[in-house]
Amino acid sequence: MLHHISLAVLDLDRAAAFYDATLATLGFVRVFADDEAVGYGYEGGGDKLALKLAPAVTIPGEGFHLAFAASSREQVSQFYAAALRHGGRCNGSPGLRPDYGEHYCAAFVFDPDGYRIEAVINEPV
Hints:
Layout: E1 5-9, H1 12-24, E2 29-33, E3 37-41, E4 49-53, E5 66-69, H2 73-85, E6 89-96, E7 104-110, E8 116-122
């Protein structure tokens, strides 16, 4: 359904360092960068997530979060660890979330600008 999404950030270098590290754990790479934006996607493809420099950022409220697909539970844990090492804050450590489904394994963090992001896999081991 979604083709791509963009997030406004106050400090492009800080945000890019965070997303370089966290998204690499899930197999995503920078697919473009300039002075005003950085895009992420799969190697050789277009951007699915763009970070755009903005003079002011209004973070969406409680109902908004962005979930990235992981291919293993280990990737979920790696995503979480990388996020915390690069300026993210915990919003739910890695683990099963039985309220979301029997096999739903996720980790939740706030990125350096305060966006709620998640890495998730919803498959049996």
